[in-house]
Amino acid sequence: MENVHLAVEDEDLYSGYNDFNSTFFTEELENDIGFQQALRTSQGRRPLMTAKLPGTAIGGRPLASSFGSRVPLASSAGRPVTGAVQEGAARPMTSIRAAGYTSTMMRGSTLDTLGQHRGPAPPLEGKNEDAPEEKIKIMEKKVNDLIEESCMAYSSGTSQLALEKAKEARRKEQALVRQREQSGTADHINLDLTYSVLLNLANQYEHNEMYPEALNTYQVIVKNKMFNNPGRLKVNMGNIYFQQKNYPKAIKFYRMALDQISNAHKEMRIKIMQNIGVVFLRMGQYSDAITSFEHIMRESPNITTGYNLVLCNYATGDREGMKKAFQMLISVPLGIDDEDKYIPATDDSSTNMVIDAIKNDKLYQMERDKKAQAEKYIMTAAKLIAPAIETSFASGFDWCVDMVKASQYVELANDLEINKAITYLRQKDFNQAVETLKTFEKKDSRVKSVAATNLSFIYFLEKDYDQADRYADLAMNANRYNPAALVNKGNTVFVKQDYEKAAEFFKEALKNDSSCTEGLYNLGLTYKRLNRLEDALDCFLKLNAILRNSDQVMCQIADLYEQLGDLQQAIEWLMQVISVTPTDPHILAKLGKLHNDEGEKSQALHYYSESFRYFPSNINVITWLGAYYLDTQFCENAIQYFERATLIQPTQVKWQLMVASCYRRSGNYQKALETYQNIHRKFPDNVECLRFLVRLSTDMGLKEVQDYATKLKKAEKTKEIQEQRVKSGRESSSRGRRGSREGSAGVSTPVLTSPMKSSITEDVKTVSQPESKLFSPLLDSGRDSSNSSRGERRSGKNISLPASNEPYESSSPKELDAYYVDPLGPPTERPKTGAKRVVEEDFADEDIGDDLLPE
Predict the structure, then answer these.
(1) pLDDT, tens digit, 9 for 90 and up, residues 242-296
(2) Residue 74: what pLDDT?
(3) Is 69 helix (H, G, I), strand (E, B) or coil?
(4) Which residue intervals correspond to the TPR repeats (predicted)?
C-alpha cells in the first residue's frame, strides 16, 4: 500500500490536455524571420543530427529560431564549423546531391527538394532531318514498311499488288545504297535489308509466274558472297524449273543445294531428297526415284514418301517391292496422341474444361487432318496393289488386311474388306460381294451399318425389294444417323408407292446430313409423284446450287417448269443442259418439241435436225421432220427421213407408202411406180398400194393395168369380208354384254372399277447409293399426258402426217375414178392436227451403269 497514492480532491484529472506547444505549430513558419534565415543559409540545407550518427559540421554554432534562444552545439569530433562561409560564396555540397541539393546553389536561395520552383523542363532537342544519317534511317524504315506491305498483300491474295510493293522496295533500297556511298558510309550498308528486299522480290516474281525474272533475282542473291547461306536458295530455283517442267535443270539445282547444305540440317536435306525423288517420278525414272525414297524412309520416314515409294514399285511391277513399300508405309509413326486423352475420365470440372477447350483447337485439327491423310494414302495404296501382288485380287486384299491388322491402323482392316466387296461389284460378281458383306453382320455397329447399306443397294439393283428393305432396316438399326441407310429405306418405300412415307425418310436423311444430294434428289422425285410441283421445284433448285452443271438436275427443273406451264423457263433450263451436254439428242428433241408448241417452227426445225444428226433412229423425230417438209411442200427433203423410218420399222407399210407418195408428188412417176411395185411384192394385199398402181399404170399406159385392177378388186372384197366379220363379232359381243346386264338388273351389286391408265406411263427408277456418289435415277416421263390439252390450246399447230384424202395430181386433166384416193390429200384440204401431237418424245430411259456403284 505504500506505493499507492490517492488523488487529491482538488486535483483536476483532465488538466494539461489543452496546453499548446508552439514548437509543433507550422502555419506561421513563412512569417518566422529566424526560421526563414536559417533556411537561406547552408545550415538550413544540412541534414538533422541523429544520435546514431552525430553531425560534425555545426559544432559551436548557435541555432537560432523563434522557438528558443541560440544554443551553441559542439561538434562530436571537436572540428571547426564548416557551415560558416563568406557572404556570396558557394559552399561545396557533394555528399547530399541525391537528395536534390546542388553545390551551385547560391546563398539566399530557398530549399526546393521536389523541384517545384524550377519551372517547366526545357524542350527536347529537335532532330535534324537534313543530317545524312537521319535521312538514311528514314529511308531504311520506308523500305521495311514496303516489304511488310508486300507480304501482307500476298497473304490477302493480291499477288499483283504484292509485286508492285516489292519492286518499289527494291528501288528505294538501291537509292539507300547510293545515299550511303555519297555520304562516305558505304561500309555500314545493311546487308540484311538488301537480302530481304531481293528475296521478297524473287518470291513475288515466282508467285506471279514471272519465272525468268525470279531466276535472275535469285541469281543475284546466290552470286553475292557477302550473304549468309545463299546456297539453300537454289532449292527455290529448282522449284521454278520444276514448275516449268524442266526436270533435268530442277534435279541439277536440287543437288547443288544438297551439296551446299551441311549434315547438321538433316530435315532440310531430307526435303530436298524428297523433291529429287518426285522429279525422277515425273520423268519416269522409277528406279532412281525408288533409290531416293528408300533413303528417306530409312533416315526419316513419312507418309507421303512411303506412298510415293509404293507407286514407284507398282509402276515397275515389282511385287516384292510393293509389299516391302506397303509394310514401310503402315509402319510410319504419326507422332500424334491417342484420342482417349480428349475423353473426360474424371469428375474434375477444371480438367473437363481444359479437355473441352483443346478438343477442337488448331493442334487437334492438325492431328486429325494428318491421321485422315495417312488413312487415305494407306487405303489407296492397298486398293492399288491388291490385284497386283498376288495371282487374284482377293488374295491380295487378304494380304493387305493381314498387314493392316498387325499395324497401328487396325480400324482400316474392316474398310479394306468392304472395298474388297465393292471390287466384286465392279467385276459383276454379285454373289461374292454379298457373301463378303454378310460377314460384317456380327461386327461393330459402324461396320455393320456400312455393310448393310451396301447389301441393301445391291438387292435394290436386283429388284429384290424385300431383301433391300430388310437390310435397309438393319443398317438403320445399327446407325440411325446413317443418311445412306435412310435413303435406301426411302427408296424401298418409294417403289411400293407409299410416297408420303418415302418423303419422311428422305427428310430425315437430310436432317442428319444436309449435303446428302441423293436424299434431296429423291425427295424432289417424290414430290413430283405427289403432284407437289412447287415443292419439287424447290428441292431441285437447292440441288442445283450444290451440284453446278448437273444435267440431270437441270432436266428435272426444266420438266417441272413445263408442267407448271412456264415454257420459256423450261426452254432456258434446257439450253443450260445443252451447254453442258451439247450432243444429247433427247434434250435437242425436247427443245424442238417446246419450240413447236410455242409456234416457233424454224427453231423447232433446227433442234429436231440436230437431234436427228446425233441420233438418226428416233422415229418421233423422223416423223416430225418428214411431216414438216411435206407441210412446206419440200417433198424431196422428206424422202430421206421416210426412208430412214423404213429401215427402222420395215414391217410398217405406211413409211414405204410415204416414200412412194413423195416421189409421186415431186413428179418422179417412174420412181414412184417402182416403189409401189416393191411395196406390192412385200405386201400383196395392201389396197392403197394397188390403187396407186392401177392409177399410175393407167396414166402411163402400161399393160399391167388390168392385172393390178383384178388384184385390187380381189383385195377390196377380201377386206370387206374381214371388216364384216369384225363388225359382226363386235355386235355379238355387245349383245352378250347387254343380256348379262339385263339378267343381273334385279341384283344391286357394287362393281369396282380401276381408273383408266394414261397411254404415256411413268417409268422412274430410283436407286440410291450408300456412298458419296450422286444418286442418278431415270428421269420422270409422266408429264405429257397432263399437258396435252395445254399444248392444244397454243397458237402454234403441231405437225402430223397428212390424211389420205388427196386426189392424184395428173399431168393431164383427166376425170379420176371415185374410188381412187391419195393418202396424202391436198395441202388446202388437209385437216389441221392441232388436237394431236405426233411427237411425244420425252427424256429417254437409261440403264444404270457402273458409275453408280458405291465406294
Answers:
(1) 999 999 999 999 999 998 888 888 889 999 999 999 999 999 999 999 999 999 9
(2) 43
(3) strand
(4) 231-264, 270-303, 483-516, 551-584, 585-618, 619-652, 653-686
- Cα dihedral 541/545/549/552 (nearest 10): -40
**DSSP codes of every residue in 36-67:** HHHHHSGGGGSPPP-SSS--SS-TTEEEEETT
**Which contacts qualify for 176-180: CB closer than 8 Å, 24 or more apart?**
176/136, 176/139, 176/140, 176/143, 179/132, 179/135, 179/136, 179/139, 180/136
Whether the pLDDT of residue 25 is over 80: the answer is no
Quick one: cell of 149? Answer: 506491305
User: Cell 494407306 maps to which residue?
Assistant: 378
Cβ atoms 180, 189 nearer than 8 A: yes
User: How far apart are alpha carbons 534 and 524 in whole angstroms?
Assistant: 10
User: Within its chain, how far is the Cα of 822 from the centroid?
Assistant: 64
One-letter amino acid at 441 equals E
179-to-169, 183, 610 alpha-carbon distances in Å: 15, 6, 74
Distance CA 108, CA 90 (A): 10
Could you read off the pLDDT of 511-568 as tens digits, one per residue? 999 889 999 999 999 999 999 999 999 999 999 999 988 999 999 999 999 999 999 9
Q: Which residue has the cell 522557438?
A: 67
For residue 780 the three cell numbers come to: 420422270
CATH 1.25.40.10 intervals, the chain: 641-726
Query: How would you classify residue 424: left for phi > 0, otherwise alpha for psi between -120 and 50, otherwise beta?
Result: alpha
Q: Is the per-residue pLDDT at 141 higher than 80?
A: yes
- C-alpha grid cell for residue 245? 517442267
Contact by Cβ (8 Å): 503, 527: yes
- pLDDT digit string, tens, across residues 300-327: 899 999 999 999 999 999 999 999 999 9
> 641-726 sits in which CATH class?
mainly alpha
pLDDT value for 445: 67
Q: What does pLDDT average to over the chain?
A: 76
pLDDT at 392 over 70: yes
Q: What burial letters (b/e) apply to 789-809, b meaning 16+ CB within 10 Å? A: eebeeeeebbbbbbeeebebe
**Do residues 201 and 170 touch, judged by C-beta distance below 8 A?**
yes
The DSSP line for 712-762 is HHHHHHHHHHHHHHHHHHHHHHHHHHHHHHHHTTTS------PPPPPSS--
The pLDDT of residue 761 is above 70? no
Predicted TM-score (pTM) of this structure: 0.56
Residue, of 629 and 422, whose pLDDT is higher: 629
Question: Cell for 300?
Answer: 526419316
Q: Which amino acid is at 678?
A: N
Outline where 584-652 has alpha helix (H).
Answer: 585-597, 601-614, 619-631, 635-648
Measure the CA angle with vertex 809, ends 804 and 811; round to 5°.
165
Residue 163 neighbours by CB under 8 Å, 6+ apart = 150, 204, 205, 207, 208, 210
